[in-house]
């Protein structure tokens, strides 16, 4: 399936299907440099498939460090020098082949080299269905994730489902975390459909019908980011589960979407304590589901909430010195609220006891 | 005098006068962090004046390396970590006090920290009348200047003429290069007015009436950048003198605007050779004027044109493998043309012989 963004200008297509990669030939620039930056693991697994699909054999390939490791400033420096030494000009374009981190990193290169050149996203993970949409790109600082970045829309997103076949379980769970988050944002029914289709890690790892759910997730995200590209309002809802999740991810190094799912659980506890959307029952259903899918809940037992809280204080969405969290008020209805340290500490104690029941 | 940009949105004021600095108090954010990044030399010379004009004494000051030295990636990394460790949020703002390099560097920090925060430009040099206008920000790569950057408009430009009193001659000549370039872009009459007002370095260093000419320069630049913010067309004319100039600057380390003035001379020779705007007489008048003002023309005697040409080939405005240069067709009428290596070599030989006449 192909869909197109609906911004006021500079729209781009999102091509989502098996064997989508061949479509990339329509987006290569003639007489200009097309430079592929590819996750080294993806390159190892899929080199033949990728080369077979690229008709233009002059394309330069640069393999980059796999996953989040590439998003360091020193690495950004070395890769940007490498690209600049190829004598690129403003018509040159970059092609990112890899997961969310690859897209963030290459997107930030494209946003800043020569003050902005084109790039194409070729996501190879489930998680990248989220990060490839919406134009957020960036790298990490030592004090936190994605703190240096930009908004830079790709020229096209080419989402080839073939790449998903080699994903490990952790990667599937991580991507599924964002799929599930988008379902929550859209409607309760969407979340029941997901739980129905993928009742356990066994069914989830088969990824049957995943294109339908990826499309739903992408559409939900697009609706939001087109309404509020620069996160002045409703786009903040996409941070559901991320305030606690980012802290947990940063400290424990579990996968992004796994941390987000635990962050969603954390948020549900605060919802319940504030008499908002959740209650004991909805929380139990959710915890049991996370256990069925194998989310690493036990990491909570060794996590230091003081350090997580310190990290939460640094979130770029905060206002003044208070922590801002997305909370759920009703079905598909969200609010952004200040949350006190006491509330966070109480919710953490409850989280710990719930996962050990 | 105060004028306002006329973009479709996100306009900002430009305040140009003696003692303008006190106006900064109207732009400071209450209950949010205001962080001043200031050129260490400017801080040393003007610390008391600056502190006396800032009513809010909570403002954090970070001194940065003076001039172009700050625009290195490793320095960008260390200063961005320093700012992030202050727990900034998206409402925080940076204030750049310094010359063009300071504005470029701090602007790039503001463009990328948390994917973009506000910044205020407080230019302290003549040259910064150019770089503070138009939203171009960035840092250098080892292969060339300003190759990593963004477009990011300031919230305000506060141009306090008091700072100009301590500028050395080289700095004055450098800034005057861009003032003169803006005059050429606007009309012949403007260039005659400049030559009239400042017939030699003695008059120029007094900077009498400079506010009038700075205003004219800013207005010329604004007209162009508002019409073509992202340099798809007419904004390229602002690169008059820069293709050769950047190469000369990079190799010889003379001041930016001094190199641009020599680049304008170089461009005049090509104009003449192509039967465009210039002729022997206009070139002689211009060379004599450069000598009166003390531009470092003799640097040409030791410059290696092969290396300059290699640098010109890397210009981000090039298309494919050809060098693009701004040439003058008539009064205030410009064109962008491919220039061959032979033409560049011929013009260089002529330049060398002209300056030694």
CATH topology of the largest domain in chain A: Dehydroquinate synthase-like, alpha domain
Biggest interface, residues from each chain:
A-B, 41 and 41 residues
The counted number of beta strands of chain A is 11
Low-confidence stretches of chain A: none
Helix percentage of chain A? 40-55%
CATH architecture of the largest domain in chain A: Up-down Bundle
Q: Can you tell me the CATH superfamily of the largest domain in chain A?
A: Dehydroquinate synthase-like - alpha domain
- Topology pattern of chain A, helix = H, strand = E: EEEHEHEHEHEEEHHHHHHHHEEH
Distance between the termini of chain A: 44 Å
Rg of Cα set of chain A: 20 Å
GO molecular function (chains A, B): 3-dehydroquinate synthase activity
Organism (chains A, B): Mammaliicoccus fleurettii
Keywords (chains A, B): Amino-acid biosynthesis, Aromatic amino acid biosynthesis, Cobalt, Cytoplasm, Lyase, Metal-binding, NAD, Nucleotide-binding, Zinc
InterPro entries (chains A, B): Dehydroquinate_synthase (IPR050071), DHQ_synth_AroB (IPR016037), DHQ_synth_fam (IPR030963), DHQS/DOIS_N (IPR030960), DHQS_C (IPR056179)
